[in-house]
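B., you asked whether I could sanity-check this one before it goes into the benchmark set. Here's the sequence:
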Amino acid sequence: MSHNRYVIMANGKGTRWGGHLGIPKQLIEIEGETLLRRIVRQLSFFDPCAEVIISSSDSRHETVGATRHKPRRNEIELDRFVHELIDNDTCFLYGDTFYTDEAISLITEANNDPLTFFGDNRSIVGVSCRNIETFTKCLAEVRDGYEQGRLLSCIGWQVYESYTGQLYSKRIVDKSFVWLDQLTAGFNSPEDLRRFIDSLDGEVAYSL
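And here's what the prediction gave me:
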């Protein structure tokens, strides 16, 4: 089932990236195109009627085929899920992630559950929202727990835990999660990029 809107989140602080290569990590080039341009292109192919928005205050993130939106709020990591862009049939993706075509295909075909999460043991790389009330309720619960000091982090995993009733218990990844093992690569740090390059073995062209 397709989505009406995709929000590519590129409004993080980039602390661990540390200005490596003199560019935001979302502008790493793989096979001649930036990560952002790659995601936009993939979405235009697999879900051509959907709106594509890049959430970022950085004008360098302007990308053909998408509209850039400056988030009204960007105080904590949870704010990457831009409140004013949340709606029914909206999907959030990460601008610092390399998605294979298979991964994007699976994400665009997300089921009709209120929320569906995509990723692997290391990270969540996509959240499909079919019900705005459910998503905003989870975000509010995570924000409250973080601001009250009951939670140490407020990222996608905590939203998943809220949705599955595990926010204050041991996380078991089971329902409402689509595994994308070996289908994505995230770049939080220069070390992540080096590992990705080492894994290519000449199969994919990259540019530094």
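One thing to flag: The CA atoms of residues 72 and 84 lie 8 Å apart. Otherwise nothing jumped out at me.
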